[in-house]
Amino acid sequence: MSVVVPVYNEEESTECLYEKIRDSCESLGPFEIVFVDDGSKDRTFEVLQKIHIQDPRVKVVRFGKNYGQTAAMAAGFAYANGDIIVSMDGDLQNDPTDIPKLLSKMEEGFDVVCGWRRKRQDKFLTRRVPSIVANWIIGRVTGVRIHDNGCSLKAYRASIIKSVALYGELHRFIPAMSTLVDAKIGEIVVNHHPRRLGESKYGIDRVWRVALDIVTVKMITGFASRPALWFGLSSFAILILGTAAFLVASTLYLGRFVEGWMVTATVGLLLFFLGAHLLSLGIIAELVVSTGDYSPGTALSTILEEQNGQVSTDG
Fold first, then answer.
1. Are residues 156 and 110 in the same domain?
2. Residue 260 confidence (pLDDT) above 90
């Protein structure tokens, strides 16, 4: 098993979190912990270096700058060696004692098990209300109706999560993205603690980004293999409006309403151009899907791992 933990400016909580994860995983068999330092500006990396030297089961990936939680999680998944991968936040709000529960749920045949912070210990208006609304919308749009997409405490089969392309801020949508590889998704209630150390890295400003990501995920999960359909549906509606505008224009022309005829004819022409443009984009997207290959960019990073008893640094 591998436990992947992205951290950013968490020097106060990192060592305590390591100890809690270690204590929870000792009885579960062989395990490793992969910390991903997402360009911290405090002493987080120094603390991780100390832990790594003391415990060879701890790997450390360090980004040269802050790339965001999705990039950090993707890097952790890439460097994890376990057959089962568990992800969690680095701020001590997720509880490592829930890890055995996640693994137990996976034994029922699930490929992805999500944590549900039913008693979430965050501010109501700025954190919980937007989360409730977002989870409801995500469930309706993607068809993956779990209670808490934003909970980082999840367990995955490595073969599944390593097949999911993560970029942007899509870490919140891993359950929906996993449906692209036919993953069976489960959910359990997990503990959630109030933040006592450090500061939250998220605020109300993330609502707009989540809204845009919902549209992106819907396109990926619903139209990734047939993008022409996505653009075609939009262009079809626009072409109908363009046809209606031309019919109105012809009526006005016969009635000798010159100004009205010119305006509606212009609108109809613009709508036809827009519809044709969307159809062209759909054709180009089909060509990209059929002939292209997705290759996410690789962030410059430093990796600390145990090799033949020696600590190595790899850029």
1. yes
2. no
